[in-house]
Amino acid sequence: MPVLLVGRKTYGSRFSNGASRHSLGHTFAAYWIDFGKTGNPNGDGRPSWPNYANESILIFTNTGPVPKPDPLAARLRAITAAYGNGTLTPLVRSTKDSEGLARRE
What is the helix (H) or strand (E) element at residue 5, kind and residue range? Predict the structure, then answer.
């Protein structure tokens, strides 16, 4: 989603301005900092960032982060299966081959 920053005001953001947004920014940064330090984003009493093996993601809302099931999990499983059984690989290869031919001409 496009966001325009002008001074300290944000236009086009889904998140409210003010203290809740500031708090959310600090929470998001804390996840990244902990992940960088330890390889695990969780800690300091924040809602647990779920392992994707459970097909869960962390949604950032105006009221804070909320773990939820990934709405695109079924699509990701289908793509992963197509790569695994070789169905998708020839399609990707043929697209790259045709791009290469177009560049050579």
Answer: strand 4-6
How far apart CA 21 and CA 14 sit, in angstroms, is: 10
Q: Note the Cα 16 to chain centre separation in Å.
A: 20
Tokens of 10: 């944000």
Q: How many residues are present in the chain?
A: 105
pLDDT tens digits, one per residue of 69-103: 999 999 888 888 887 776 666 655 555 555 555 55
Distance of alpha carbon 58 from alpha carbon 72, whole angstroms: 13
Name the strand (E) or helix (H) holding 73: helix 73-84
Q: Which pTM does this prediction carry? A: 0.56
